[in-house]
């Protein structure tokens, strides 16, 4: 099903390349584990179960982790109204609408297909944004669903999750079981941990590179669909500024889901974390929206001449 969101060839190519490279990495990773653990049945069953759980239940896991709940029209009529208008404008199925009780202003989309999509906003976002700004944010999230990059990021993140779990398993096996294991077992665990760490690092970098581009693609698609890039820019500026004032300790529980957020849960000074960021910088996003605004003949964005 095609929507009225403008196709982004660059995003499509990047998603294909990322999945291809991660597929090669995935095959090599599973093959290495089979050789090391000498049980292909065990490896395949475990990996298949983990992949199935993440693919089929990723939306529920994300909602549960972010304290989100599905809401009906009676509870949030204005929110449903905006999603209704955007879905009709984009010629897409209306996603399930959810609200998280978090005060941190943010939003995210999840779901493996457009028919199974969920868009969730926090109460902090609803409280801070004007209706036109909220429309820009929701159009951004809806474009993720239309471009199918939510499903791609979910799948692409899977290998890193498995590798990360194996690193922890191998580490704690050595830490707490070293006295009861022979040298061959310890060496095997060390190799598994090394291979898993390398796979985790490579998949982490590939997913981060894709994630930064997909956020720019979603900003661009949302601005063109609504015709009001200045409102999206205003929402970005407002949300980023408010998140920067939230204490770091309050942001840590949310940072695991940064790849899915409208704006990452970082404090005022992420430092070197920007090198591995899930999102482009605020300046990059505003610059792009400024160019789109000029193309559409819209008034200058806030903070731009």
Topology:
Elements (H helix, E strand, L loop, with lengths): L8 H29 L2 H26 L2 E3 L6 H14 L5 E5 L6 E4 L7 E5 H6 L2 H17 L1 H29 L5 H44 L2 H16 L3 H4 L30 H15 L9
Helix pairs in contact: 1-2, 1-6, 1-7, 2-6, 3-5, 5-7, 5-8, 6-7, 7-10, 8-10
Q: Give, in order, the helices and strands.
A: HHEHEEEHHHHHHH
What multimeric state do the chains show? single chain
Radius of gyration: 21 Å
| Number of E-type strands | 4
Mean model confidence by pLDDT? 80
Q: Give the overall silhouette.
A: elongated
Which structural class is indicated by helix and strand composition?
mainly alpha
3D structure, described in words:
This protein has helices at about 10-35, 40-65, 75-90, 125-130, 130-145, 150-175, 185-225, 230-245, 250, 280-295; strands at about 70, 95-100, 105-110, 120. It is mainly alpha-helical and about 300 residues long. Strands 1-2-4-3 form a 4-stranded mixed β-sheet, with helices on both faces. α1 packs antiparallel against α7 (about 185-225) and α8 runs antiparallel to α10 (about 280-295). The radius of gyration is 21 Å and the shape is elongated. The mean pLDDT is about 80.
List keywords for this structure.
single chain, 305 residues, mainly alpha, four-stranded mixed sheet, 10 helices, 4 strands, 66% helix, elongated, zinc, metalloprotease
Outline of the structure:
InterPro entries: HtpX_protease, Pept_M48_protease_HtpX, Peptidase_M48. The relative contact order is 0.13.
């Amino acid at each position: 099903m095609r929507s009225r969101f403008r196709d982004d060839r660059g995003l499509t190519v990047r998603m294909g390349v990322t999945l291809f490279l991660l597929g090669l990495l995935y095959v090599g990773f599973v093959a290495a584990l089979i050789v090391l653990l000498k049980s292909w049945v065990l490896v395949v069953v475990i990996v298949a179960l983990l992949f199935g759980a993440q693919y089929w239940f990723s939306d529920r896991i994300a909602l549960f982790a972010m304290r989100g709940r599905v809401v009906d029209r009676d509870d949030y009529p204005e929110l449903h109204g905006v999603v209704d208008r955007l879905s009709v404008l984009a010629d897409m199925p209306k996603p399930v609408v959810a609200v998280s009780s978090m005060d941190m202003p943010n939003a995210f989309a999840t779901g493996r297909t457009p028919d199974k999509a969920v868009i969730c906003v926090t109460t902090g976002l609803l409280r801070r944004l004007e209706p036109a700004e909220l429309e820009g944010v929701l159009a951004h999230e809806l474009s993720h669903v239309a471009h199918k990059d939510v499903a791609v990021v979910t799948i692409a993140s899977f290998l890193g999750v498995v590798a990360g779990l194996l690193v922890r398993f191998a580490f704690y096996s050595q830490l707490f079981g070293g006295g009861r294991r022979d040298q061959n077992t310890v060496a095997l665990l060390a190799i598994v941990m090394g291979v898993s760490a390398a796979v985790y690092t490579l998949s982490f970098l590939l997913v981060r590179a894709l994630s930064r581009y997909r956020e720019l693609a979603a900003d661009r698609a949302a601005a063109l669909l609504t015709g009001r890039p200045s409102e999206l820019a205003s929402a970005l500026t407002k949300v980023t500024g408010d998140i920067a004032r939230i204490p770091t300790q309050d942001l840590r529980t949310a940072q695991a889901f940064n790849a899915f957020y409208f704006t990452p849960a970082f404090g005022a000074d992420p430092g070197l974390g920007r090198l591995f960021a899930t999102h482009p910088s605020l300046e990059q996003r505003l610059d792009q929206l400024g160019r789109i605004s000029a193309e559409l003949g819209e008034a200058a964005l806030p903070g731009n001449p």
